[in-house]
Amino acid sequence: MRPPNPQRDELHQLLLRWYDRHARDLPWRKNPEPYQTWVSEIMLQQTQVATVIPYFERWMARFPTIADLANASEDDVLQFWQGLGYYRRGRNLLAGAQYVVANGIPFDAAGWQEVPGIGPYTAGAIASIAQNQPAALVDGNVERVYSRLTADATEPPKLTQNAWKWANLNLDHHRPGDWNQALMELGATVCTPKNPQCPTCPLKNRCAAFAIGKPDSYPTPAKRTATVQLQQTLWIARCGDRIATERVPQGEWWEGMVSFPRSQTHDLTENPFDPAWPKLAGTFKHSVTHHRITLQVACVTVENAADNYTWLNAHELNAAAIPAPHRKGLELAKRL
Ligand code: SF4
């Protein structure tokens, strides 16, 4: 039992009263079982709520239970993840489901952290939201709310450690899931990174950054990683009605997905289908983490289907899990 703390109790009352009125109606909140919460939390990492909603609904229709997911193939899972990015998350969900089917559903945050792909944040979310366990969590929203409420100017990553201490000390043990969601909701909708809506904030009278008139000064920004510029060529080779594909090797972005031959330069003499003459279909930019990639799409037509590639027809390409920028390259090539 924790000793009584009137200030903490007031914080809980203010924020939970606000949350009870303003919580967004999101599909994973209708049935907060561990599996639904787990899938939604993984999808929401680095992805906006509005983008996640249709993916979550399609996922639940295709893999309605942990057992359905555990029995799926990696190709099937990646196909349903296609377009969400950070594909490792989809692969980890599959490995995690297989672990849970073999070992049983964990009943607290420590148990969830044993599951492949689940870290302290997701473990806290599942245990508190779906199992009503007294588990704290910190994501980017909670960290920002914490740094403003306390005017903590510590730079990341030490700020994250401070936020975890605060989250553990201030957890509402009666409604841990609602409290955690309320903090995240406040960060997502009111205490936003830019232009926080302080006049409508339920915690404004408890907020140190608001009191000194500097909410935008917190948290102290992390030092930026320099952007790395890369050039790549995507080779779209046709043989009759089929196109050459290959699996992305282990250790590369999108490992295990279906893609097309690529070279790490715009030099067309590096044509893997030489002597077939390449035609350029176009060039576009896309980003992966701090890398900015200028992707050139080159098309060739060949007479013989070399057996070091897998040649897929249009129907098979539609069903394949292809990274979004490479599918965009394929669409460009179709217009040539
Ligand atoms: S008063 Fe402003 S800065 Fe403070 S928690 Fe509320 S929205 Fe964030």
Distance between the termini: 70 Å
- Helical/strand content category: alpha+beta
Proportion in helices: 40-55%
CATH topology-level fold name of the largest domain? Nucleoside Triphosphate Pyrophosphohydrolase
Please name the CATH architecture of the largest domain: Alpha-Beta Complex
- Quote the average pLDDT: 95
N to C succession of SSEs: HHHHHHHHHHHHEEEEEEEHH
Largest sheet: 7 strands, mixed
Can you count the helices?
14
Strand residues, percent = 5-15%
The CATH class of the largest domain:
Alpha Beta
Low-confidence regions: none
Q: Could you say how many structural domains there are in total?
A: 3
The distinct bound ligands, ions and cofactors come out as: iron/sulfur cluster
Query: What sort of overall outline do the alpha carbons produce when their principal axes are compared?
Result: elongated
The CATH superfamily name of the largest domain is Nucleoside Triphosphate Pyrophosphohydrolase
Radius of gyration, whole Å: 24 Å
- Got a strand count? 7
